Amino acid sequence: MLGVAAGIVLGLVLLAAAALKLAGGVRARAALATYGLHGARATAAWAALIAVEAALGVAVAAGAEVAAYAGAALMAAFAAAQAAVIAAGRAGAPCACLGARGRVGRGSLARACVLAAALAVLPLLERRQPTTDEWLAIGLGLALAGVAVLAVAVLALAREVGVLRLAMPAVGALEIPHEGPELGGRTALADAFGDELTRGRLGLAVFTSEGCAMCHALAPAVAALAGDPQVALREFDEARDAPAWAAADVPGSPFAVAVDEAGTVLAKGTFNSGAQLESVLAAAERRRGAMRAAG
Description:
The protein is α+β, with helices and mostly antiparallel strands. The chain folds into two domains: 2-129, no CATH class; 188-294, 3-Layer(aba) Sandwich (Glutaredoxin). Helix content is 58%, strand content 11%. It has helices at 2-31, 39-62, 65-87, 106-121, 132-167, 213-217, 219-226, 242-248, 274-294, and strands at residues 94-98, 101-103, 202-208, 231-237, 255-259, 265-270. A four-stranded mixed sheet has the order 4-3-5-6. The chain is elongated and about 85 Å long. The protein starts with a helix and ends with a helix.
């Protein structure tokens, strides 16, 4: 049973390596430059490695001893190539082991050595036909291993999404000069805040509509800003507060206007996210600071 289970696992490893190289495409071929392969030679080597690893994976899983020894020789060749790269002082270069990802280093070298040794030892293991219960145990083990791989993949994907989001430039609210109240002018909206608009606080007027799906989606973000002690927030509904909408010349919802304690419009704009709503306050803070410095 041990030989059967080990053969299936090692066969899957070889198949996974071939699949990752295929999925890596151009980047996987470019990674072969680490070993001095460029252009057409790299493409030919990439295609050959995919074909050989896929064929060996199927044969090893099926129990072919020759395939196990051939796989061991292939892994040993990979280990020797990586050892030469490390010795040349180029550790950290793409290793092309698992497609476009992975770097040459002690870890990749150890992995290749372990796989070479495991494949070499595989034909020596007892390979009797498993019983039904043993097949179930093998299947359960493979299923659990698959779940673990999927969990790692999901975590890796989440990390990549996080990195991409951090790399994306922050986009503020859409501030168009002739939409909404005039920047730098005084607006009657300040009167709606009453005595809450004390010195040092910013007034944030948020214009919403009952039929606006985006307004409903952003309600939690608006509510969160309402709890900020430095912000006095008021919401103006299109139907209920129609006069305020008309006075502010609001183009649509959701829209926000930030004012200081004197009722001066410091920032405004259409927003589609909590971050864009916060950008209205950030712009207001920046302009208020500039006005105070100039005064």
